Amino acid sequence: MEQNITVRVAHSGDVHYAKTITDEMEASAKARGTGIAKRSPEYIANKMEEGKAVIAHTKDGSWVGFCYIETWEGEYVANSGLIVSPAFRKSGVAKEIKRTIFNLSRQKYPNAKIFGLTTGLAVMKINSELGYEPVTYSELTQDEKFWAGCRSCVNYDILMSKDRKNCMCTAMLYDPADHYTPEETKENFEQKSKVFERLMSLKQRIFGNKEKEVRGAAKPKSLLHYFFWRVAAKRV
């Protein structure tokens, strides 16, 4: 990561970045052609004021990146809205933001399960280095407010057509009560990265073709589980 970039917990003095952040979130989602739950500048500003966000900026105050915390049912935490300014992508700042927001989540909610949904292999790699595992959607929060946040996503119809059991995103989870070490999850991701890449490509082909009714669309989810040692049940 570049030496002139600071990554820290956001506060009320950072609210002037909120509009820039939400504009980039929307632009990035459109450029990728994939979804992201839309958030207002007011919502992002509130997360900053609550100390439930991480921001990155240069020494001269230029915005670099952002991520925030959401909580569900008192048991689940999501590190959401990870976004990096185009000028600073591939600089390593995304990894540092993820690590900082993960540590903040563990500090604030030590017993909560931390999860995320992503369409990006790069984010999956970062998550695996923190100890996240790919999981089925059934292992995520079932709070209706969480899933309602997906309504602004371009893939929402796909999610609902699959009864919220599958979509373009891959689900990943860190369970503080039952998890592998970051070294294990990182190593396994590196070993299976080509498999994950093919499965995500398969999802694109299956779910991207809305004119065909594809039976067995849950196979990518099951295969993903298989390649992460979760064939029959959680380890004891």
UniProtKB/TrEMBL annotation:
<dbReference type="InterPro" id="IPR016181">
    <property type="entry name" value="Acyl_CoA_acyltransferase"/>
</dbReference>
<protein>
    <submittedName>
        <fullName>GNAT family N-acetyltransferase</fullName>
    </submittedName>
</protein>
